[in-house]
Amino acid sequence: MLECLEKQNEIITLKNLSVRYKNFYALKDINISIKEREVIGICGESGSGKTTLCKTIAGIEKYNGEIKFLKDLKFEFIFQDPTSSLNPKMLVKDIISEPLIVRERITKREVICEKIKKVVAEVGLDSSIIEKYPHQISGGQKQRVAIARSIVCEPDILLCDEITSSLDISVQAQILNLLKDIYEKRNLTMIFVSHDIFALYYISTTIIVLYKGMILEKGKADEVIKNPKHPYTKILISSILTTERECIDIEVRENKTKSRCIFSDRCFIYDKECDSFENELINVSDTHYARCIKV
Amino acid sequence: MENLLEIRNLSIDAKIDNNFYNIIKDIDIRVKKGEMVGIVGESGSGKTITSLAIIKLLEKNLFIKNGEIIFEGKNIMELDDDEMRKLRGREISFVFQEVLTALNPVMDIETQVSEVLIHHRICDKERAIQKTTKILKELGIPLDKLKHYPHNFSGGQRQRILIAISLIGDPKLIIADEPTTALDVITQIEILKILKKIKEEGKSIILITHNISIVRNFSDYVYIMYLGEIMESGKTLDVMSNPIHPYTKLLLNSIVTLEKKDRLKPIEGNIPSIYEIPTGCRFITRCPFKTDKCIKEPPIKNKEGRYFRCWNV
Amino acid sequence: MYKGMKKFLIRKILFIPLTFIGITMILFFIINLLPPQTLALAYTDSDKELTKEELDLIIEKYDLKGNILKRYGKWLLKTLKGDLGYSQVSKMKVIDAIKKYLPATIELTIFSIIPIFIIGNLLGLTAARNKDGLSDKIISTTSSFFYSMPSFIIGILLLLIFYGIFGVLKPQRYSITTEIMISQGLFKTYTNFMLIDSILNLNPSVFIDSLKHLILPSLSIFLGTSASFIKITRNSTLEELNKDYVRTLRAKGLSENYIFQKHIRKNILIPQITVGGLQMIRLLSGVVITETIFDWPGIGSFGVRAARQLDVSSVMGFVIIVSILFLLGNLIIDLLYVYFDPRIKYE
User: Which residue among C258, C262, C343 sits closest to B105, beta carbon to beta carbon?
Assistant: First the structure.
C-alpha cells in the first residue's frame, strides 16, 4: 500500500463523535481523521459499533459531535451478505447499471453498456454473467457483482462492511486481492470493516480497533499488529489461530471492576491501578494511540 | 485400539426434482476413543450431512446409497427408530451451530438440559436437576439463571448450554458442528478450550469446521473434505506441516497470515454447485496440477498413514 | 410478573372505558340522525296514527330531542348507574332482558368452543403429523368444505336430519315441559344457565333435556367455524417442525410423541390463542344466524329484533354488552400471551 500518506489531505474528520440509541451508546468518543488514499481498517466484533460507524460516515445515522468533509464526496457501500444486497428479481446487468441510471442520470445505452463491460472485466467476471440472475451465480461471484456495482460510478470513498465474512475461505483471498487491485488502479479511499484482523493487516494502512463503541487502539497497520499496546488487540492477534504456530494461551477473565475502562471486566492485566483510569486515549507515538493505563 | 466409530465407503445421494445427485462419495472416517477428529470443509463439502448421517437425522430427500456406519461394533444402518433414539443424546450427542435458534424459546433451560436424563430414564427428576445444575455451573452458567429462557442468554452462553445438553447424557462421542461460528473471538477460545477439556476426560469429539486454523490447534486427526469427498487425511500436525493433496496445499497457502505478502495466493475459480459435480476427481475444476488422468476418479493412496486421493502426487 | 406488565395492564384497563365511550357515542349519534318523531314510534304499541300532542309527550318523556351532547351525557350517566332503559321488544327492562338472553348465548358459546379447542387441536395435530397423507387430506378437505358453506345451510341441514327425519334432537333451548315447570315455579332459574341451574335444582331430566337442545346448534357452530382453528393448528405445527430446535430435540433422542406433547404444543399456543380467542369473542357477540335457525333465545337474536324495530334502548344495551365482552376478551387474550410466551415484554 502507498506509504507517502502524510502529505495527503484530510478529507473526512470525525471529532468527538457519538451515537446514542435510547439508553446506551453505540459509539462514543470517536476521533478519526481520514486522509485521501488511506485505507482505514476497522476491527470490531459484533456489537462493537463498526456498522454504526460506517453508517454515520455515510451520513445515514444521527450523531452528536462533528463530521467534516473537505469536499463533496461520493460514497459507495458494499455489505456482508451478497444474497440480500442484490435484488433477486434483477439481472446482473441491471443491478450494475442501476446507479448509473439513477445517480449519474446517464441515459445513452451505449455508454451504459460500455461501462458495464469494463467494470465486469475489472472484477474478474466473465461477460456472460450480465444476463444471469443472482440465484444463478455463486456467493463469490455475487460479491464481485456487488463490488462492480459500487465502482461503476467512480466513487471517492468505498465502505466495505465485512464483505468477506460470509464467503468460503478459498474465495476470501480472491476478493481481498481484487480489492487491492481496484484500490491501486483507481483514486480511492477505503474504509474496510472486518472482525478478521489479518485481512485488515493485508489491506489497510491504518487500523482502528473498536470495542463496545469505543476506539481501544489506533495507529498504522504495522504498529498495531506488530506492536499492539492494548490487551484486547493482543488477544485478537494472538488468538487468531493460524496454522503456523501453536495457539498462544489466553487467559479469559471475568473481573468485577469499578474502573471506567470499558474493557476492564474481561482484561487479563486488570489490577487496582486501572480503577483510577479516566478512559482516555493515550499516545504511544505520533500516530499510535491506545486506551489503556498500562501503556 | 479398536475404533469407536467407523464410517466405511459411505455414499449419499440427494433427490432434487426427481433427479438424484451424488453428494457424498465413498468416504472413510475413523474415530478412536479419546480422540478429537477434525473435519474441514467449505460449503458444499458435505461435512454436516456426514455428521447427521451418523445419528440418522438426514433430511427426507437424502438417501444413503451404500456404505456402513459402525459405532461400537454395531451397524447404525441396521438399527430401527427406537434403538437409534436410545443412542442419541446418550451414546452420541450433537452440538449444532445455529446457536440462536437451536433451543426451544418457550421453555426454561433447566428443563431443556435435564429432560435428556429424564426422558432416557437415566435417573429421576431430582437427581437430573442436580446433575443439570452441576454441569451448567462447570460451564459457567450460574444457579440463579437456571429458570430463565434462551433469549435471556448471549450467544456464547447459549452455546455453552448446548454443550451442556450434549454432555449430560455422558456420551462416548460428541459431534460439534461449527461450534464457534457467530461467537466473538474471546468466547471462541473459551468454547474450544471446553471441548479440549472434555476430550482429555476420555470422550471422543468430531469437530466440524470450515476454519482450518481451529482444527490445527484442537484436533489430533484431520479429514479434509471437498465437494463430498475426502481429499486428504492424517494426523493433524503432519497434514498442516506437510500437506500432500493440492487442495490442502492451496488452502493453507491462501489464508491470510501475519507474514504480509504482496499478493495473496487464492484458489482460483468457484466451488461447483450440486448440479455441476465433476465425474472424476472433484477438484479438477480448480486444480493447477491437473492432468488427463484426472478425468477418472483417483484411487486412495496411502503414504505412511497419510491417506489422499490424487493421481499426481 | 414483569416490570413492564403493570404499566401494560394499567394502559389496557384504561383503554376499556375510553373505547366504550367512543363506541357508544358513535352509535348514539348515528341513531339520533333519525328525526325524533321516528324514534318516538318505537315507544308505541298501537298501529293507529298518533296525534302530534301524543308524539310530543313521548318525545318529552324519553328525551328524544335537544342538544345531542347533553343527551348523550345524560344517557351515559344513567347507563353507568345501571339503568339501561326499557326494552320494547321484550317488554321488560333492558338490563333484565340482557340478564335473560346473555346466559343462553354464553352457554352455547362455551358448549361450542370447548369441542373446537379440544377436537380442533387434535385434528390439526393429526393433520400436521400425517402431512399429505390420507388423514391430512380428509381433515383439511372436510373442514374447508363445511367452513365455506353458509352457516344457515349447515343449521338447516342438521335440523332436517336430526329433527325432521330422526326426531331425536330439537331446536330451541328447552322443551315445553321444562317451560311449564319454569312458569309454574317448579324449576328455579337462578343463573339462567340451564346446565348449572339443573344441577342446582337437582333435576337430572332437565339437565339431559338441555343437553339435547344444545347439541344441534353447537354442532352447527363447530362444523361451520372450526376450520380456522384446525388450520392454524396444522400450519403452526408444520412451521415448528421445520425449526432448528426440533432438530436439537431429535438429536437428544426424544421420541416424536414427546416432542409434540411437551415442546411443539407450547409453541403453537400463541397463534392458537389468537385465532381461538377471536373466535370465542365473535361467538359471544351472538351467532345471529344460528340463533335464528334454532330459535335460540340468545343475545344475537335479541339485538336483531331490537334493530328491526328501532328499539333504541335495546340496541344501545346490546351494543354496550357486546363491546364490553369484546374488550374484556381482548384483554384476556393479551394477558394469556404474556403468560404463555416468555419472550414478550411490554415496555
Answer: C343
> Is residue A295 in some structural domain?
no
- Note whether A45 contacts B185, CB cutoff 8 Å: yes
Identify the CATH number of the domain in which residue A38 sits: 3.40.50.300
Q: How far is B117 from chain A (nearest CA, A)?
A: 31
A139 CA to chain B: closest CA distance, Å? 9
Domain-located, residue A43: yes
Closest residue of chain B to C267, computed from CA coordinates = B106
Instruction: Extract the C-alpha cell encoding A142.
Output: 455475487
Domain with CATH 1.10.3720.10 in chain C: 92-340
Work out the burial of residue C49: count CB atoms within 10 Å of its CB; fewer than 13 is exposed, 13-18 middle, 19 or more buried: exposed
| Closest CA–CA distance from residue A102 to any residue of chain B (Å) | 32
Residue B240 and residue B306 in contact, taking contact as beta carbons nearer than 8 Å: no
Residue A181 and residue A249 in one domain: no
Phi, psi (degrees; rounded to nearest 5) at C200: -65, -30
Which chain C residue lies closest to B104 (C-alpha atoms)?
A: C245
Domain end call among A173, A208, A243: A208
Q: Is B96 on the interface with C (CB under 8 A)?
A: yes
In tens, the pLDDT along C210-242 reads: 888 899 899 999 998 899 999 999 999 999 999
**Are A233 and A173 in the same domain?**
no
Cell numbers representing residue C136 in the block: 391430512
| B145 interfaces chain C, CB cutoff of 8 Å | no
Interchain pair B88, C243: CB under 8 A: no
- CATH number of C92-340, picked from 2.60.120.260, 3.10.450.350, 1.10.3720.10, 3.60.40.10: 1.10.3720.10
A33 and A101 assigned to the same domain? yes
Q: How far is CA C255 from CA A205, B103, B180, in A?
A: 57, 17, 29
Asked if the C-beta of A202 comes within 8 angstroms of chain B's C-beta atoms, the answer is yes
- B264/A177 touch (CB, cutoff 8 Å), yes or no: yes
| A216 inside 8 A of chain B by CB | no
Predicted confidence at residue C151, as pLDDT, reads 80
Q: Chain B contacts of C342, Cβ < 8 Å? A: 105-106, 108, 149, 151
Q: Which residues pair with A220 in a beta bridge?
A: A206
* The one-letter amino acid at B91: E
Q: How far is B101 from chain C (nearest CA, A)?
A: 6
Q: Most distant CA pair in chain A: distance in Å? A: 69
Facing residue for A250 by CB, picked from B42, B189, B263: B189
Domain interval for residue A56: 10-208
B89 interface with C at CB cutoff 8 Å: yes
B84 touches chain A (CB under 8 A): no
What does the pLDDT read at residue A239? 64
**Structural domain total, chain A:** 2
Q: In this structure, are strands B62-71 and B74-75 parallel, antiparallel, or unpaired? A: antiparallel
| pLDDT tens profile A32-67 | 999 999 999 999 887 788 888 988 888 888 999 999
Cβ–Cβ gap A140/B270 under 8 Å: yes
Which among C245, C258, C343 is the nearest to B102, CB-wise? C245
C122 to B81, C111, C220, C230: CA distances (angstroms): 24, 17, 19, 8
Q: What is the pLDDT of residue A247?
A: 57
Residue A1 confidence class, pLDDT cut points 50, 70, 90: very low
